[in-house]
Design brief:
single chain, alpha+beta, six-stranded antiparallel β-sheet, 10 strands, two-stranded antiparallel sheet
Length: 221
Amino acid sequence: MKLFRRFKKEKSMKNKNPGSGIQTGKDNRIPPHPFMERCAYLREEYGLIVPDVYINFFTRHKISENNFRYRCLWDNEIYERVFYTKEFILYAVKRYTEIHGEHADYNHLQEILDEAHYEFILKENRFAAEHMDISFIDQCYEELERNQDCLMIGIETYADCGGAEYMIMTSDKKGYRAGGYHGMSEDLDINGITITYEILNYYGMVSERILENNPYEQIKN
């Protein structure tokens, strides 16, 4: 089945450590929580930084390994997706105008913005593509100190032909679950310049949804 364009360049992070990570200690010391070890592995291998809001929740609660919002961080393939924040778009337009002045081609800026968010290399924390020059977008990211909170990185929890849901890892929405369908976007008008970028609907905190659907999940003593 042909996938929509928005999914065609999602990068698959192959899990070289597919086991649950659960350990049993042979002494009286309490072994590290397997999710803590998993997060360390994801950061080292793929550059994925799991924020404290998820670490605290998943280590304090007895969440079933079959819960898809927990399991998505243990799957053999993990899919990340990058969206722009409004602040990043505003900065990119500002810098483009400063650099090009009256010769600025905002249609070209729209083109490289459209392409670049499919070309984020998480392991290296940068934008790069072989088929198109998107160095301006990476330059903006560099000037913003490569702060991932200037972007919105989501981990896909599920997808179908209509869209997908993500757990947000960065920005002021970290800890939220969000979703969108193909082509869901917003026009941002900046001093008469219109830039279109993909957006998400925010459905609330992941932790609240899990506990709402699983009222018997308990806090560990």
